[in-house]
């Protein structure tokens, strides 16, 4: 079947390359089965060479209905190779090499509840159980009294409720189930469980692999698991004993591991409190913490950086020390994330599945490609499938299976195809190092901060006073007959015509607003009555329509024969207001004659 799959793939590539409408796509549609009945997430899917024949198979932990039909499925080519029944819902699945024995066939580890089921050659090989947690001694004492019939079920309920609210150690599952029962069901529950010892068991929330002492692809790997009570364990790949234990402030739900256990490693964990913690070999507590604005829903390490998808439709990039590098805004909520790694081309990108039936490919913050899907994608896996290196496998919300193959001629450009700021904006500036002069100046400013602030305020006040004086002087001695209002959208200029002693004074008023008219305005003139006389010294202005020029004419008579001139002031007022909206100073020309009386 694998041979037919490869032949069909090659034929599809020739056929699709011949079509101009499809040739622009970077992917070949190798297989799509909308009724595959495969319900899984990215944490429960992997590609592995299970039989050591050089052909990778697809291994998936099928969630079934959530209550039953949980299975471990193996796909080869386009068909289902085998399936095994799982006892509980899988929370994670990884493929790893547990020893150096020949033939080098990897094992499959499935995390389910408090157990890890290890399969070798698709057969059950080992079952690991998480260590039990400490039980509250007060809880044990309460159940001991119930065992000896010293207290009734209602008293037991009251005492357990008091312990639940105040005790530092959480209650066991038995006590929590007892508190959920109806009063008529409590007595039967106590009779059934009072003879059994109390145990407090945690469950596994995420799982990963860590190379033990070499970075080779076929090196032996350790299992790394995160638990509900906030602990992280590193297990020995052969004896399945706990090699190292670390603690977190919250429950982990996403995990990415890099490095070697015997040399140096980093474990990046996203927790339910909305933070990301980075664990290192030399510390059982988190080394760095990244506080997010919303809860993480996807975590991928790309090189030395960490890419996080958040519930507020954003994608963030951080350094391994927690420094934020960039943010990309997405058109829909994130459903799943995975790493796309092509070592043969030296290409790495992040695949982000969205709720709008799209898969976006990002390099840093740049969107380099978009894949349309027939349904919402719930899991993504990229790698070698069969003998094809660039294979993209996706499962959908409706249980479908999609297989795409990257074309050998596909080229991804680094430029961003999404609207937004250019790439050059995110390039860091080459800021020079701090010099001794800069440090000395900083120390001087710290020591004399109060005196420097007072001097600055004094200079600022002097500057404001000088500007106010200059403004008043300009108003009093202005020679330009043009003015504009700062409070109203008005503009006015004046034109004086004639040689004297009679002058024609024309005022041009304009409303500069976009669509609002101005009304209830008037014009008043202020002049020396010993030098000039005006026929009309007060005008009412009609309604000013935006954009139109309104000329207003009046005549001025010069009364002096001494060849002197003065300034006539023009004020634009609003009816009922004393403060002028607009002021203009008109410098009248010298009259060449005397007015006749």
Automatic annotation (TrEMBL):
Q: Kindly indicate where the leader peptide sits in this chain.
A: 1-19
Q: Which GO terms describe its biological process?
A: non-motile cilium assembly; protein localization to cilium; protein transport; retina homeostasis; sensory perception of smell; visual perception
Q: Where in the cell is it found?
A: Cell projection, Cilium membrane; Cytoplasm, Cytoskeleton, Microtubule organizing center, Centrosome, Centriolar satellite
The residue stretches assigned to a coiled coil in this entry are: none
Q: Which UniProt keywords apply?
A: Acetylation, Cell membrane, Cell projection, Cilium, Cilium biogenesis/degradation, Cytoplasm, Cytoskeleton, Membrane, Olfaction, Protein transport, Sensory transduction, Signal, Transport, Vision
Q: Where is the Bardet-Biedl syndrome 1 N-terminal domain?
A: 27-280
A cellular-component GO term for this protein: axoneme
* UniProt GO MF annotations: patched binding; smoothened binding
* Occurrences of domain Bardet-Biedl syndrome 1 protein GAE (ranges): 490-592
Describe the protein's quaternary organization and the partners it interacts with: Part of BBSome complex, that contains BBS1, BBS2, BBS4, BBS5, BBS7, BBS8/TTC8, BBS9 and BBIP10. Interacts with the C-terminus of RAB3IP. Interacts with CCDC28B and ALDOB. Interacts with PKD1.
The name on file for this protein is BBSome complex member BBS1
Please spell out the taxonomic lineage of the organism that makes this protein.
Answer: Eukaryota, Metazoa, Chordata, Craniata, Vertebrata
């Amino acid at each position: 079947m694998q041979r037919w799959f490869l032949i069909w793939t090659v034929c599809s590539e020739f056929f699709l390359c011949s079509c101009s409408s499809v040739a622009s796509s970077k992917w070949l549609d190798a297989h799509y089965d909308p009724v595959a009945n495969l319900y899984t997430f990215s944490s429960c899917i992997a590609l592995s060479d299970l039989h050591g024949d050089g052909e990778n198979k697809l291994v998936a932990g099928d969630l079934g209905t959530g209550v039953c039909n949980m299975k471990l499925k193996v796909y080869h080519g386009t068909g289902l190779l085998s399936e095994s029944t799982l006892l509980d819902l899988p929370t994670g699945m990884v493929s790893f090499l547990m020893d150096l024995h020949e033939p080098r066939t990897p094992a499959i580890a499935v995390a389910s509840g408090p157990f890890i089921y290890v399969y070798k050659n698709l057969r059950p090989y080992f079952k690991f159980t998480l260590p039990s947690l400490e039980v509250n001694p007060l809880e044990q004492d309460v159940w001991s009294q119930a065992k000896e019939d010293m207290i009734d079920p209602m008293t037991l309920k009251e005492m357990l409720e008091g312990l639940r609210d105040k005790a530092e150690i959480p209650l066991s599952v038995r006590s929590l189930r007892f508190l959920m029962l109806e009063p008529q069901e409590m007595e039967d529950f106590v009779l059934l469980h009072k003879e059994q010892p109390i145990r407090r068991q945690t469950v596994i929330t995420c799982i990963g692999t860590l190379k033990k002492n070499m970075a080779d692809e076929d090196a032996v790997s350790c299992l790394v698991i995160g638990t509900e009570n906030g602990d992280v364990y590193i297990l020995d790949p052969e004896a399945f004993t706990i090699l190292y234990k670390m603690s977190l402030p919250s429950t982990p739900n996403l995990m990415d591991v890099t490095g070697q256990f015997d040399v140096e490693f980093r474990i990046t964990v996203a927790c339910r409190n909305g933070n990301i913690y980075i664990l290192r070999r030399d510390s059982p507590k988190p080394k760095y913490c990244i506080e997010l604005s919303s809860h993480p829903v996807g975590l991928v390490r790309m090189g030395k950086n960490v890419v996080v998808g958040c519930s507020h439709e954003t994608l963030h990039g951080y350094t391994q020390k927690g420094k934020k590098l960039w943010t990309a805004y997405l058109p829909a909520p994130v459903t799943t994330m995975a790493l796309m790694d092509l070592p043969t081309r030296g290409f790495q990108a992040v695949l982000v599945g969205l709720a709008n039936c799209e898969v976006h490919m990002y390099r840093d913050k740049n969107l380099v490609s978009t894949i349309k899907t027939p349904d919402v994608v719930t899991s993504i896996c990229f790698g070698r499938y069969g003998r094809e290196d660039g294979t993209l496998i996706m499962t959908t919300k409706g249980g479908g299976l999609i297989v795409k193959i990257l074309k050998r001629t596909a080229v991804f450009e680094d430029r961003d195809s999404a609207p937004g700021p250019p790439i050059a904006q995110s390039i860091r500036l080459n800021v020079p190092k701090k010099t001794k002069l800069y440090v000395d100046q900083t120390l001087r400013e710290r020591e004399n901060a109060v005196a420097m602030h007072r001097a600055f305020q004094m200079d600022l006040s002097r500057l404001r006073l000088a500007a106010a004086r200059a403004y008043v002087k300009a108003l009093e001695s202005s020679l330009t007959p043009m003015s504009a209002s700062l409070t109203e959208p008005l503009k006015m200029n004046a034109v004086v015509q004639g040689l004297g002693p009679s002058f024609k004074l024309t005022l041009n008023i304009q409303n500069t607003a976009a669509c609002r008219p101005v009304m209830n305005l008037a014009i008043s003139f202020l002049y020396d009555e010993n030098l000039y006389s005006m026929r009309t010294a007060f005008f009412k202005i009609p309604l000013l329509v935006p954009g139109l020029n309104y000329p207003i004419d009046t005549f001025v008579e010069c009364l002096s024969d001494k060849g002197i001139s003065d300034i006539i002031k023009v004020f634009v007022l609003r009816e009922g207001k004393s403060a002028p909206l607009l002021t203009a100073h008109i410098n009248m020309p010298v009259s060449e004659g005397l007015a006749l009386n």
